[in-house]
Amino acid sequence: MSRVAVGLTGLGRMGRLHAGNLAARCAAARLACVHDADPAVAAAVAAELDVPWTESFDELLGACEAVAVATPTASHAELSVRAAAAGRHVFCEKPVSLDRATTCAVIEAVDRAGVVFQVGFHRRFDPDWAAVAARVHAGELGEVTLFRTSLRDMTPPDPAFLATSGGFFADVTVHDLDIARWLVVPGAGEVVEVTAHGSAADPAFVAAGEIETCVVVLRFANGALGVIDNSRSARYGYECSTEVMGTLATARVEAPHGHEWRTSGQAAYPLPRDFADRFPHAYAAELDAFARCVRSGATPLVTGRDALAASDLAAACDESWRTGSTVTIKENR
Ligand SMILES: NC(=O)c1ccc[n+]([C@@H]2O[C@H](COP(=O)([O-])OP(=O)(O)OC[C@H]3O[C@@H](n4cnc5c(N)ncnc54)[C@H](O)[C@@H]3O)[C@@H](O)[C@H]2O)c1
User: Fold this and answer.
1) Atom of ligand 1 nearest to the CA of 73
2) pLDDT tens per residue across span 37-50
3) Is residue 122 lining ligand 1, measured as CB closer than 6 Å?
4) Residue 271, CA distances (Å) to 205, 231, 254 in order
5) Which domains does the chain have, with CATH numbers?
6) Which pTM was predicted?
7) In the chain, which ranges are E strands?
């Protein structure tokens, strides 16, 4: 199988991670060309990885079979639609858009173009989560009764980022909502209810009307319950864990633990500092999986509709937090 030639646009924090993976760690894909709104950034990454670069997105399309979009969220929809219209397969960072109608329009456009479209929910490709998912989906847990998941960033983002993030639930919690849908929904049915609470201690978050900590309670169609806790500023390290409890077994993905006291940059055992540190395999594997779908025509593990469903739940969490009430999920909100 020849490797899929991927053109990458957006070479910031996330784009550089994808660039490194496409250049060196993907068996099914290769980095064909890079592009960024800032030509100096594109030139620097191209020199570092010994690949061509371009100042024009149209030229990028001409140099590849598939595009990876890692630009800021506001441009994902336009770039994905342009790439699909040119017949290019698209890997798009999450979220597709902060606007539901725009996300739906992107899904329609990629469907119409008949291209593979995958969204960047990388955790589905982490070996630990994938191993648990295989056994949960095979029914080895019995009926799922409780889902618990946690995502905590070590350090908060620049306050300037908050204005464009789409809010805490759309930016952070959406990863856990996707994991809930992926792991639990096949057995327990869709999420039918969310109740979200949020708080902020950091004055920059308070001033921006944003939260930095949340707890979300989910109820699934079969009556199973879920709990999500998220923090933007755990300080001691980056930590991500998931637990699924069933009538026959309980599955956990988390670091080993015991009694401990955690302080800034310090835990009893080494913890990653951020998502790139924690998920090196997942970020490479999601691009490899995307490339294999491009070659085989198979449906990606994360589709545009998956991204839409997770965004809908994030919007429901936001509504719950703002109104202080439980939100019932309507089908096709
Ligand atoms: N899946 C994950 O775990 C994860 C983690 C972090 C960020 N993200 C997502 O990745 C995306 C990028 O985030 P980031 O933190 O890397 O941003 P960033 O600000 O670090 O980098 C963005 C880059 O895109 C370039 N750019 C801006 N507009 C452009 C355009 N129209 N065309 C081409 N290049 C353009 C900028 O010059 C910059 O180099 C966001 O949508 C974010 O939600 C996903």
Assistant:
1) 41
2) 999 999 999 999 99
3) yes
4) 25, 16, 11
5) 4-115 (3.40.50.720), 124-277+310-328 (3.30.360.10)
6) 0.91
7) 4-9, 29-35, 53-54, 66-69, 89-92, 117-119, 144-152, 191-199, 213-220, 225-231, 239-246, 250-253, 327-328
